[in-house]
Amino acid sequence: MDKSQLREAVIDIIKSIAPDEDLNGIDGEKPLREQIDLDSMDFLDIVMELRVRYKVDVPEQDYPALNTLQGTVDYLHPKMGNV
Amino acid sequence: MHDSRIVITGIGVASPNGDNLAEYRTALLTGKSGVEKMETRYIGEVNAGICRFDQFKYQKKKEVRRGTRSGSIAIYCSREAMEDTSITVDDVGKNRIGVYLGITEHGNVETENEVYNISRFDYDTKYWTHHHNPRTVANAPAGEVTLNLGITGPHLCIGAACAAGNLGLIYGAQMLRLDECDLALAGGVSESIHTFGIFASFKAQGALAEHADPTKASRPFAADRSGIVVSEGGSVYTLERLEDALARNAKIYGEITGYASNSDATDHVLPNPIRQAECIELALERAKLKPEEVDIISTHGTGTTLGDQQECEAINSVFKDCPDTYVNNTKSFIGHAMGAAGALELAGNLPSFDDGIVHPTINLDKLDPECEIKNLVINQPYKKDRINQILNNSFGMLGINSVVIVSRFVG
Question: Which of B68, B233, B245, B385 would staple B340 via disulfide (CB 3.0–4.6 Å)?
Fold first, then answer.
């Protein structure tokens, strides 16, 4: 999965967790929670969906890496490049 | 402590045969059942009462995803009740509204879903959702109402088996009299059809209704009944002290003049007609009514042999000389909505103060001789001259009994 595909995969997960939000204008460099209505429980949903869909575990100390969309893609790419 | 009279000013309904009181009442007067065939996990096809209200009318998609089905039912019914009586949270004050909802059980749906979910991952508990605890706490449906409406007054759920709908109303009336709130959102809700366990348990008990035609599956008092049809649903009322309702010129559906609750202390499952009769008599005493003054008895009858027969025994012992008292059953239309049943069945009867009609019990082709009750309204509605008093029975497992009496409002 390249970074472009990875970005789409992450957006697809966020869509399922925040179905009322418009994700078209998401700025990859800005914190997600400043742009859409996401709270800590939603964030845990993202972590769970990564585990369920792609068998990727994100340890708690790495959660800050998922702060932005681009940060999430960069963090996941080494783990999911072969997915 | 107020000794105020407590009145019903708004009603929200989510029933298998109607999404509001008008639709529901029409269904009850035209013999329209709300029971369908439904596939349920591990068991297959069952008869069930399924609600079709628009759950996105008052909730965002994310709220529905995060919350529970009983929460969605509670929010829908609460918002409909407030719309019905044209009152807002700001009108009352967000800290002066209390939410009191009866439930038979809560959390089984979410727990079953999670166990099923992790079964697909070799029971690895790291796949168990973090939403499980907030979804399964016993106050969840009432709490979801406060979150949705921004209510900061008290909320709780009253766990009272199948007597819970009445208990929600009783608790709401009591909290108004204790000045805990100025408006009570009170009633009952149930999401039980989304758990396979309730069907499996009734089936194991020999008490799950089976019928090729789902609309004929719920047959209380019939000699050929086969048991309970499990349903989901809800009904939430706005209750107010009379002086508050009059001050804002609210429509008044009726006045809660009597109520009672007691315990059989007899058996986990089997009812006790002596205690049921005592509960009815206590409610009548508190309402200052004689049995013969009751116009409608809304029965609890679920379609189990012993439950139906024992309720009839209780009714016959209290109402033996009551020529103008008529008896009906709403579960024959919608099945058993568990924690919602008491409030939902009472709601279906309240329009009779205006239209003077007693809706029937349907699916009754051959009466169980042990269920002979005078003036049981069978299959067709009965037009009565004037209806002033409705008595609503609701009984549940572990021997919990509840009775609510609503009287025509007289200023």
Answer: B233
